[in-house]
Automatic annotation (TrEMBL):
Signal peptide: none annotated. Pfam families: SSF. It comes from Brevibacillus fluminis. The lineage of its organism: Bacteria, Bacillati, Bacillota, Bacilli, Bacillales. This is Sodium:solute symporter family protein. Its main location: membrane.
Amino acid sequence: MERRDGKRMFTIGSLDWIVIAAYMLGMVAIGLFAGRKLKGYEDHILSGRQVPTHYLAPGLLTTQIGAGSIIGFVGLSYSIGYSGGWWIISNIVTFIVLGLIGAKPLREAIGSKTLPEWFGNRYNEKSRLFTSITIAIAEIAFTTGQIVGGGLLFSVLLGWDPKIGIFAFSIIVVTYTVLGGLWAVFITDFVQMFVMFAGVTALIAVGVMDTGGITNLIKTSPEGYFTLVKDGQISTVIAQILYAIPAIFCSFDIIQKIMSAKSPQVARNSCYWAAGGVVFFAITMPLIGILGYHILGPNVENPEMITPLLIGTILPIGLKGLAISAVLATLMSSASACLIAASAVITNDICKYFVNFEKLEEKRKLSINIWLTLFLGVISWAIASFYDKAMGNMELAWTALSCGAFIPLIAGLLWKKASSAGAISSMLTGALTGMIWLFNDNPLGWRPIIPAYIVGILVLVLVSVLFPNKTGNYVGSRNQEDLVG
């Protein structure tokens, strides 16, 4: 099959189709296999809390490296070089921080199946309700974003109508996630990690050879393309790291996997292994953007399509199918994680306000979560296909969540005197500050999280001191004496 994109001709050979089809059918087969492990509700949303390091570390890594990395930040690096990859680089820091202060206590909180439930146990039901609603909406938005990315990939490389690509991508992701739950997500993530490594390596190797080697690439690139921190950019770098840390702590698709670890030590160590894996993508993703600048020229109309355009332009038949599968892997791993996270929060933390979910039989709870996962998959597909303008409104929930929940989360982990009144006050004022800042186009050039965190910290400390808890609520660690008093 050949298709023309402007002046470029893409050839998708039979071998490429075989590789792509084998990959996608393999994902569905894994879902069927993982479904055999499901005995109850907690197996579907937490894999029975029995996930070992060799599944958890790839799961954390592939969930975090999604459409933003393979599409957005490759496109940014096409325009400005390696300094466009700081979001990816910052995830090295965030996984280390998560391992140091968050992974063990969140896994030790065995009375909490979700992050909102942890907030409810640590603080009160109001904080649980706030985080459950914002997380559910945000995770659906993230799922939709990955589906849109998959549809664009099919459109650019295979010449499909974007809506057909979105439908095909949705069918695969929703099927294996529904059938196998979080176990399917972990096993597919394990496979997808190797597909991602192989596909990205193939693309880089062929691209570097086509441009005359890495030395020639450095010499002929625009000034500053291989500079990690440009003059006057240090504040931007710090802001990226400050933004990335709450992004990972407040992402239940990540925290859900932490809570599913076989032990607190596995949870912590997997974060460190994931940080090491990010190094590979921190090096390769910006390099793909720079290769795109040299091979495709400086005037590509849509830089976010650099990766698929590069795949279609330079890779031979066979490797092209591998690279397409690699990009699909980055998108599918993130989409499936976000989808199962959304369904878990709704059944565990929102349904309780309408039905006594905990009193239901285990098989009944499992059935409800399976059907809800399917329903949310259909909703995500519909939004991606027909209601793309809704994405902006849905992502406001992420602004409210990250600006409101991060400070109470960190305080709940590290400061045993953080009170319920302080937490909910910090959540509301932080979220409100962030939204006001966002709607006023970020005064002073600050992202909403900066003023939100300043306000959130002040409010949490002040209200916690004035209105302390009458009894200890700390649920995050077995060793309260390790906390700041």
